[in-house]
Design goal:
The protein is α/β, with parallel strands linked by helices. The protein is built from 10 helices and 8 strands. A 6-stranded parallel sheet has the order 5-4-3-6-7-8, with helices on both faces. The chain has a two-stranded parallel sheet with strand order 1-2. Strand 3, helix 3 and strand 4 form a beta-alpha-beta unit.
Length: 252
């Protein structure tokens, strides 16, 4: 189970748990959501597996030709209400007001309808972002990792405006690449991520909190903080950790 939405979990209310050998979820937070709907079932927690080769910490001199003084920010997700893409654009406008020269990249949404795509650019136009916004509807891991590193190197960050998450795979991948987060203070992130200067948690519905977090971003992330969180995530959610959890679930 990899969902936290009411609609996504609703079918569990009518599922006969006696027919299941087990349920696997990526976090204890998700396990609690599922257990409420499946009486008598204790889900097995099998953390998502981070691709350590695809999302390395650094690539030396990768952005030598990047425009000087431009802060890069990124948002990743489906163009839906759950991921909150409209709020992401509103905060991109705030970032432009704060820093002047910014590049805002939105990644994802290749399944979005034509109407949603039109709504995206209509709102971007109203907010004066058409010269700032880049929308990439799909991307490979290598290019995505390069975007994450570009954000970190420029003094930018990844924005996480999601209403909820079951794990936060994209956020974890960004951190692996040295890209800080400005994120909604989601319960699951307190489980998945350690305390770190790389993560600025805010109530995403409070603009003043977002503004303070953005102003507090360093010109470039602290390399020690980057290494610390990389080591934590790679050891906790790498392939070896997953196999330990999988074997434990199969033997239970």
């Amino acid at each position: 189970m990899h969902t936290t939405t009411v609609n996504g979990l609703a079918y569990l209310n009518h599922l006969d748990a006696r027919r299941l050998a087990g349920v696997m979820v990526p976090t204890h937070y998700s396990a609690a959501l599922v257990a409420k709907r499946l009486s008598g079932i204790t889900p097995h927690v099998l953390p998502n597996v981070l691709d350590l080769e695809a999302f390395p910490l650094s690539s030396e001199h990768e952005h030598e030709d990047a425009a000087v003084g431009v802060r890069h920010f990124i948002w990743v997700g489906k163009l839906d209400a759950h991921k909150n893409w409209r709020l992401a654009l509103i905060y991109a406008h705030m970032l432009k007001e704060l820093f002047g020269s910014v590049q805002f990249t939105m990644v994802g949404g290749y399944t979005a309808s034509t109407e949603t795509g039109e709504a995206l650019f209509a709102l971007a136009g109203k907010l004066g972002l058409l010269d700032t916004l880049r929308w990439i509807d799909r991307i490979d891991n290598q290019a995505l990792a390069a975007l994450y590193r570009q954000c970190g190197d420029s003094g930018g960050a990844m924005l996480v405006t999601s209403r909820d998450e079951s794990f936060g795979m994209a956020a974890a991948e960004a951190l692996m690449c040295g890209c800080p987060l400005i994120t909604n203070d989601l319960p699951v992130f307190r489980e998945v991520f350690p305390n770190s200067d790389m993560i600025r948690r805010v109530d995403i519905w409070q603009p003043e909190q977002f503004e303070r977090a953005a102003k507090a971003l360093p010109v470039a992330p602290d390399q020690e903080a980057c290494r610390h969180i990389y080591e934590h995530l790679s050891s906790t959610y790498g392939p070896e950790a997953f196999m330990v959890a999988l074997n434990a679930a199969l033997e239970a």
